[in-house]
Task: structure prediction
Amino acid sequence: MKDRIILLILPALVLLGFWMGRREPVRYEITGGEVYFAPGPECEEHIIAEINKANKIDIAVYSITSVPVAKSIISAHKRGAKIRIATDRTMAGNKYSQVDELAAAGIPVRKNKGHRQQHNKFAVFDGKRIVTGSYNWTKNAIQQNAENCIFLDAFGPTYSERFEYLWDLYKQ
Result:
């Protein structure tokens, strides 16, 4: 009898788990955007341009080793932009990482907790414009890697919501 009850309950629990983990896709009509590819300077140049004009920037990236990007983030912070960075704990310890310099400049940085890796690669500018793609914010991405980045004036609220989730999860 006990085995029958387990056999009846187990499939129901599995189905419930699938249902509870399901998220409805977020649908937007996209009317514009820009796509850039690496190797080459285009992704980095456009990321820096967005950083230079934004007043609020939430960054969730696996790694930041690009000195020009780090310098632009620090400059934006000094001019009063509100910036937060969620990054990967292991990659932040890399000898080329700029994370310690960013934190030393007073920029709030949180490292992954609850995930094996913080492997996102996105930023939200002023809660509206996003950059995402495979592009790592690194010197290797500019010089060697086949990567891409896309800038969109859509999905800002969705990416902002995800950033808030990561920010709360990564509390030290």
